[in-house]
Amino acid sequence: MRSLVWQGPNQLVVQDSPKPEPGPGEVLIKVAYTGICGSDITIYRGFHQRAKPPLIIGHEFVGHVAELGPGVDDRLQVGDMVTAEPTFSCGTCKYCRSNLSNLCAGVGVRGVDGPGAFAEYFVSKQEKVYKLPPAMPLREGAVIEPLAVGVHAVNKGQVAIDEDVAVIGAGPIGILTAQAARARGAGRVFVIEVKPNRLKLAEKLGFIPIDGREDPVAAVRSMTGGVDVVFDAAGALASAGYLVPLVKKGGRLVVVSIFKEAPPMDLRTMAYSELSLCGCFIYVPQDFHQAVELASSDKVDLASVISHEVPLADAVRGFELMEKADDSMKVLIKIS
Ligand SMILES: [Zn+2]
Ligand SMILES: [Zn+2]
After folding, report:
1. What is the CA(33)–ligand 2 centre distance, in A?
2. What percent of the chain is predicted at pLDDT more than 70?
3. How far is the CA of 170 from the centre of ligand 1 (A)?
4. What is the pTM of this model?
5. Cis, bond preceding 209 (omega within 30 deg of 0)
6. I need a surface site. Which of 126, 228, 257, 324 has the fewest CB within 10 A?
Protein backbone atom coordinates (compact mmCIF):
# COMPACT_ATOMS: atom_id res chain seq x y z
CA MET A 1 0.00 0.00 0.00
CA ARG A 2 1.08 3.61 -0.57
CA SER A 3 2.17 5.33 2.64
CA LEU A 4 4.03 8.37 3.92
CA VAL A 5 7.04 7.26 5.91
CA TRP A 6 9.15 9.48 8.13
CA GLN A 7 12.72 8.32 7.63
CA GLY A 8 14.43 10.82 9.97
CA PRO A 9 14.73 14.62 10.39
CA ASN A 10 13.44 16.43 7.26
CA GLN A 11 12.93 13.13 5.41
CA LEU A 12 9.37 12.24 4.44
CA VAL A 13 9.02 9.67 1.67
CA VAL A 14 5.95 8.35 -0.14
CA GLN A 15 6.65 4.62 -0.50
CA ASP A 16 5.10 1.16 -0.47
CA SER A 17 4.58 -0.49 2.91
CA PRO A 18 3.03 -3.89 3.76
CA LYS A 19 -0.77 -3.75 3.91
CA PRO A 20 -1.85 -4.52 7.51
CA GLU A 21 -4.19 -7.45 8.25
CA PRO A 22 -7.00 -7.11 10.80
CA GLY A 23 -6.55 -9.54 13.72
CA PRO A 24 -9.29 -10.72 16.12
CA GLY A 25 -11.49 -7.79 17.17
CA GLU A 26 -9.80 -5.47 14.67
CA VAL A 27 -11.10 -3.48 11.73
CA LEU A 28 -9.27 -2.68 8.50
CA ILE A 29 -10.04 0.88 7.35
CA LYS A 30 -9.38 2.22 3.86
CA VAL A 31 -8.20 5.74 4.61
CA ALA A 32 -9.67 8.60 2.56
CA TYR A 33 -8.21 11.75 4.17
CA THR A 34 -5.63 12.35 6.89
CA GLY A 35 -4.97 15.78 8.39
CA ILE A 36 -1.56 17.19 9.22
CA CYS A 37 -1.18 18.01 12.93
CA GLY A 38 1.36 20.33 14.53
CA SER A 39 2.86 17.22 16.13
CA ASP A 40 3.40 15.71 12.65
CA ILE A 41 5.48 18.79 11.76
CA THR A 42 7.45 18.33 15.01
CA ILE A 43 8.16 14.71 14.00
CA TYR A 44 9.04 15.67 10.40
CA ARG A 45 11.57 18.24 11.59
CA GLY A 46 13.11 15.77 14.06
CA PHE A 47 12.09 17.49 17.31
CA HIS A 48 9.54 14.98 18.63
CA GLN A 49 10.60 13.33 21.91
CA ARG A 50 9.10 9.89 21.26
CA ALA A 51 8.80 9.21 17.51
CA LYS A 52 11.42 6.81 16.10
CA PRO A 53 12.04 6.35 12.34
CA PRO A 54 11.07 4.64 10.13
CA LEU A 55 7.45 5.45 10.93
CA ILE A 56 4.17 5.92 9.06
CA ILE A 57 2.93 9.09 10.74
CA GLY A 58 -0.60 10.65 10.90
CA HIS A 59 -3.43 10.28 13.42
CA GLU A 60 -6.32 12.51 12.24
CA PHE A 61 -8.20 10.59 9.59
CA VAL A 62 -11.44 9.44 8.03
CA GLY A 63 -12.11 6.44 5.80
CA HIS A 64 -14.37 3.46 5.18
CA VAL A 65 -14.45 0.00 6.72
CA ALA A 66 -12.70 -2.36 4.25
CA GLU A 67 -12.61 -5.62 6.21
CA LEU A 68 -13.67 -6.96 9.60
CA GLY A 69 -11.31 -9.20 11.56
CA PRO A 70 -12.58 -12.36 13.35
CA GLY A 71 -15.04 -11.67 16.17
CA VAL A 72 -15.93 -8.08 15.28
CA ASP A 73 -19.60 -7.52 16.13
CA ASP A 74 -22.19 -6.38 13.57
CA ARG A 75 -22.20 -2.79 14.79
CA LEU A 76 -19.76 -2.14 11.94
CA GLN A 77 -20.22 -3.13 8.29
CA VAL A 78 -17.90 -3.03 5.29
CA GLY A 79 -18.37 0.37 3.59
CA ASP A 80 -19.28 2.34 6.73
CA MET A 81 -17.74 5.81 6.93
CA VAL A 82 -15.62 5.85 10.07
CA THR A 83 -12.91 7.56 12.04
CA ALA A 84 -10.94 6.03 14.90
CA GLU A 85 -9.49 7.24 18.14
CA PRO A 86 -5.75 6.80 17.49
CA THR A 87 -4.66 6.45 21.13
CA PHE A 88 -3.81 3.33 23.10
CA SER A 89 -3.02 2.63 26.75
CA CYS A 90 -2.47 -0.39 29.03
CA GLY A 91 -6.16 -0.64 30.01
CA THR A 92 -5.44 -2.03 33.48
CA CYS A 93 -3.58 0.60 35.56
CA LYS A 94 -5.20 2.93 38.07
CA TYR A 95 -5.42 5.76 35.51
CA CYS A 96 -6.94 3.57 32.81
CA ARG A 97 -9.50 2.23 35.31
CA SER A 98 -10.42 5.81 36.34
CA ASN A 99 -11.15 7.13 32.83
CA LEU A 100 -7.77 8.89 32.75
CA SER A 101 -6.15 6.72 30.09
CA ASN A 102 -4.36 9.82 28.76
CA LEU A 103 -2.25 9.71 31.94
CA CYS A 104 -1.35 5.98 31.68
CA ALA A 105 2.39 5.32 31.74
CA GLY A 106 1.88 3.30 28.55
CA VAL A 107 -0.22 5.89 26.69
CA GLY A 108 0.61 6.33 23.03
CA VAL A 109 -0.78 7.71 19.81
CA ARG A 110 -0.73 5.82 16.52
CA GLY A 111 1.37 7.76 14.02
CA VAL A 112 3.75 8.73 16.84
CA ASP A 113 4.29 5.55 18.87
CA GLY A 114 3.11 3.07 16.22
CA PRO A 115 2.04 2.95 12.56
CA GLY A 116 -0.25 5.85 11.64
CA ALA A 117 -2.81 6.92 9.06
CA PHE A 118 -0.90 8.59 6.23
CA ALA A 119 -1.39 5.28 4.45
CA GLU A 120 -4.00 3.56 2.30
CA TYR A 121 -4.96 1.21 5.13
CA PHE A 122 -5.10 1.49 8.91
CA VAL A 123 -5.96 -1.28 11.36
CA SER A 124 -7.77 -0.38 14.58
CA LYS A 125 -9.34 -2.19 17.51
CA GLN A 126 -13.12 -2.18 16.98
CA GLU A 127 -13.83 -0.28 20.22
CA LYS A 128 -11.76 2.66 18.92
CA VAL A 129 -13.73 2.87 15.64
CA TYR A 130 -16.63 5.34 15.35
CA LYS A 131 -19.25 5.08 12.64
CA LEU A 132 -20.08 8.51 11.18
CA PRO A 133 -23.46 9.61 9.80
CA PRO A 134 -23.58 9.15 6.01
CA ALA A 135 -24.65 12.79 5.57
CA MET A 136 -21.38 14.09 7.06
CA PRO A 137 -19.06 15.45 4.34
CA LEU A 138 -16.20 12.94 4.20
CA ARG A 139 -13.39 15.47 4.71
CA GLU A 140 -14.89 16.73 7.96
CA GLY A 141 -14.43 13.31 9.54
CA ALA A 142 -10.68 13.95 9.50
CA VAL A 143 -11.16 16.92 11.86
CA ILE A 144 -12.95 14.97 14.61
CA GLU A 145 -9.67 13.99 16.31
CA PRO A 146 -8.48 17.60 16.77
CA LEU A 147 -12.05 18.52 17.81
CA ALA A 148 -11.68 15.92 20.61
CA VAL A 149 -8.67 17.91 21.85
CA GLY A 150 -10.91 21.01 22.07
CA VAL A 151 -13.72 19.05 23.73
CA HIS A 152 -11.27 17.72 26.33
CA ALA A 153 -10.06 21.28 27.00
CA VAL A 154 -13.55 22.71 27.59
CA ASN A 155 -14.45 19.70 29.75
CA LYS A 156 -11.31 20.26 31.83
CA GLY A 157 -12.09 23.99 32.01
CA GLN A 158 -15.69 23.13 33.04
CA VAL A 159 -17.09 25.90 30.87
CA ALA A 160 -20.60 26.67 32.17
CA ILE A 161 -23.65 28.29 30.57
CA ASP A 162 -23.12 31.98 29.70
CA GLU A 163 -19.55 32.11 30.97
CA ASP A 164 -17.21 34.40 29.05
CA VAL A 165 -14.29 32.61 27.45
CA ALA A 166 -11.09 33.75 25.77
CA VAL A 167 -9.01 31.57 23.47
CA ILE A 168 -5.44 32.57 22.71
CA GLY A 169 -4.50 31.41 19.21
CA ALA A 170 -6.84 30.82 16.27
CA GLY A 171 -5.09 27.88 14.62
CA PRO A 172 -7.15 24.70 14.13
CA ILE A 173 -7.01 23.75 17.83
CA GLY A 174 -7.89 27.29 18.99
CA ILE A 175 -10.85 27.56 16.61
CA LEU A 176 -12.09 24.06 17.51
CA THR A 177 -11.74 24.82 21.24
CA ALA A 178 -13.73 28.03 20.76
CA GLN A 179 -16.43 26.07 18.91
CA ALA A 180 -16.50 23.36 21.59
CA ALA A 181 -16.82 26.08 24.28
CA ARG A 182 -19.75 27.68 22.50
CA ALA A 183 -21.40 24.27 22.00
CA ARG A 184 -21.10 23.75 25.78
CA GLY A 185 -23.02 26.99 26.33
CA ALA A 186 -20.35 29.66 26.73
CA GLY A 187 -21.47 33.30 26.55
CA ARG A 188 -19.10 35.61 24.73
CA VAL A 189 -16.10 33.87 23.14
CA PHE A 190 -13.09 36.10 22.47
CA VAL A 191 -10.40 34.81 20.12
CA ILE A 192 -6.96 36.43 20.31
CA GLU A 193 -4.77 36.06 17.24
CA VAL A 194 -2.06 37.94 15.34
CA LYS A 195 -2.64 36.59 11.81
CA PRO A 196 -5.28 38.64 9.89
CA ASN A 197 -6.77 35.65 8.00
CA ARG A 198 -7.29 33.76 11.25
CA LEU A 199 -8.89 36.80 12.90
CA LYS A 200 -11.27 37.01 9.95
CA LEU A 201 -12.15 33.33 10.32
CA ALA A 202 -12.86 33.82 14.04
CA GLU A 203 -15.16 36.72 13.21
CA LYS A 204 -16.91 34.78 10.44
CA LEU A 205 -17.67 32.00 12.92
CA GLY A 206 -19.32 34.51 15.27
CA PHE A 207 -16.53 34.84 17.83
CA ILE A 208 -15.23 38.22 18.99
CA PRO A 209 -11.88 38.70 17.22
CA ILE A 210 -9.18 40.39 19.28
CA ASP A 211 -6.09 41.59 17.44
CA GLY A 212 -3.10 40.20 19.29
CA ARG A 213 -0.85 42.88 17.81
CA GLU A 214 -2.64 45.56 19.86
CA ASP A 215 -3.06 45.24 23.62
CA PRO A 216 -5.41 42.20 23.69
CA VAL A 217 -5.67 42.07 27.49
CA ALA A 218 -6.89 45.68 27.66
CA ALA A 219 -9.37 45.02 24.83
CA VAL A 220 -10.91 41.96 26.52
CA ARG A 221 -10.89 43.49 30.01
CA SER A 222 -12.59 46.68 28.79
CA MET A 223 -15.52 44.57 27.60
CA THR A 224 -15.66 42.00 30.43
CA GLY A 225 -13.58 43.01 33.43
CA GLY A 226 -11.95 39.60 32.94
CA VAL A 227 -13.31 36.38 31.44
CA ASP A 228 -14.29 33.26 33.39
CA VAL A 229 -12.05 30.85 31.51
CA VAL A 230 -9.03 31.40 29.27
CA PHE A 231 -7.54 28.73 26.97
CA ASP A 232 -4.01 28.87 25.64
CA ALA A 233 -3.95 27.31 22.19
CA ALA A 234 -0.95 29.28 20.94
CA GLY A 235 1.87 27.80 23.01
CA ALA A 236 3.92 30.98 22.56
CA LEU A 237 6.00 32.66 25.25
CA ALA A 238 4.88 36.07 23.94
CA SER A 239 1.21 35.40 24.70
CA ALA A 240 1.57 33.17 27.79
CA GLY A 241 1.73 36.36 29.85
CA TYR A 242 -1.89 37.14 28.86
CA LEU A 243 -3.33 34.14 30.70
CA VAL A 244 -3.42 35.55 34.23
CA PRO A 245 -4.54 39.13 33.46
CA LEU A 246 -7.26 37.93 31.06
CA VAL A 247 -9.33 36.15 33.71
CA LYS A 248 -11.46 37.61 36.47
CA LYS A 249 -10.93 36.70 40.13
CA GLY A 250 -11.69 33.03 40.71
CA GLY A 251 -11.20 32.29 36.99
CA ARG A 252 -9.68 29.24 35.30
CA LEU A 253 -6.63 28.99 33.05
CA VAL A 254 -6.48 26.01 30.70
CA VAL A 255 -3.28 25.08 28.88
CA VAL A 256 -4.23 23.25 25.68
CA SER A 257 -1.02 23.83 23.74
CA ILE A 258 2.34 22.19 24.29
CA PHE A 259 4.92 24.87 25.12
CA LYS A 260 8.40 24.24 23.78
CA GLU A 261 9.84 26.35 26.60
CA ALA A 262 8.35 26.76 30.08
CA PRO A 263 6.82 30.27 30.40
CA PRO A 264 7.10 32.22 33.66
CA MET A 265 3.83 32.24 35.65
CA ASP A 266 2.55 35.03 37.91
CA LEU A 267 1.88 32.77 40.92
CA ARG A 268 1.46 35.82 43.16
CA THR A 269 -1.61 37.08 41.28
CA MET A 270 -2.83 33.49 40.95
CA ALA A 271 -2.85 33.26 44.75
CA TYR A 272 -4.43 36.67 45.40
CA SER A 273 -7.14 36.12 42.79
CA GLU A 274 -7.65 32.42 43.56
CA LEU A 275 -7.13 31.37 39.97
CA SER A 276 -7.09 27.71 38.94
CA LEU A 277 -4.59 26.36 36.44
CA CYS A 278 -5.44 23.25 34.47
CA GLY A 279 -3.29 21.23 32.07
CA CYS A 280 -4.53 19.17 29.13
CA PHE A 281 -2.98 16.15 27.45
CA ILE A 282 -4.62 14.54 24.42
CA TYR A 283 -8.16 13.45 25.55
CA VAL A 284 -9.94 10.46 27.03
CA PRO A 285 -12.39 8.17 25.17
CA GLN A 286 -15.43 10.08 26.51
CA ASP A 287 -14.11 13.28 24.91
CA PHE A 288 -13.68 11.51 21.58
CA HIS A 289 -17.21 10.14 21.84
CA GLN A 290 -18.53 13.67 22.53
CA ALA A 291 -16.52 15.02 19.58
CA VAL A 292 -18.18 12.50 17.25
CA GLU A 293 -21.62 13.53 18.55
CA LEU A 294 -20.79 17.23 18.23
CA ALA A 295 -19.46 16.73 14.69
CA SER A 296 -22.74 15.00 13.80
CA SER A 297 -24.74 18.02 15.04
CA ASP A 298 -24.97 21.49 13.52
CA LYS A 299 -23.26 23.06 16.55
CA VAL A 300 -19.78 23.07 15.01
CA ASP A 301 -18.40 23.96 11.60
CA LEU A 302 -15.53 21.56 10.93
CA ALA A 303 -15.11 22.58 7.28
CA SER A 304 -14.12 26.07 8.49
CA VAL A 305 -10.73 24.89 9.72
CA ILE A 306 -9.77 23.00 6.53
CA SER A 307 -7.66 25.30 4.33
CA HIS A 308 -5.92 22.99 1.85
CA GLU A 309 -6.13 19.53 0.35
CA VAL A 310 -3.18 17.86 -1.44
CA PRO A 311 -2.77 14.36 -2.87
CA LEU A 312 -0.57 11.81 -1.09
CA ALA A 313 2.08 12.10 -3.82
CA ASP A 314 2.48 15.80 -2.84
CA ALA A 315 2.46 15.19 0.90
CA VAL A 316 5.75 17.01 1.49
CA ARG A 317 4.28 20.11 -0.16
CA GLY A 318 1.31 19.76 2.19
CA PHE A 319 3.65 19.81 5.18
CA GLU A 320 5.35 22.92 3.85
CA LEU A 321 1.99 24.64 3.30
CA MET A 322 0.97 23.80 6.85
CA GLU A 323 4.21 25.20 8.20
CA LYS A 324 4.72 28.30 6.08
CA ALA A 325 1.63 29.40 4.12
CA ASP A 326 0.08 32.60 5.50
CA ASP A 327 -3.41 31.28 4.86
CA SER A 328 -2.92 27.75 6.18
CA MET A 329 -5.13 26.17 8.80
CA LYS A 330 -5.67 22.40 8.62
CA VAL A 331 -4.06 20.80 5.56
CA LEU A 332 -5.59 17.46 4.52
CA ILE A 333 -3.76 14.81 2.55
CA LYS A 334 -6.08 12.95 0.19
CA ILE A 335 -5.01 9.35 0.54
CA SER A 336 -7.50 7.55 -1.72
ZN1 LIG B 1 -3.12 15.92 16.30
ZN1 LIG C 1 -2.90 2.29 31.91
Report:
1. 30
2. 100
3. 15
4. 0.97
5. no
6. 324
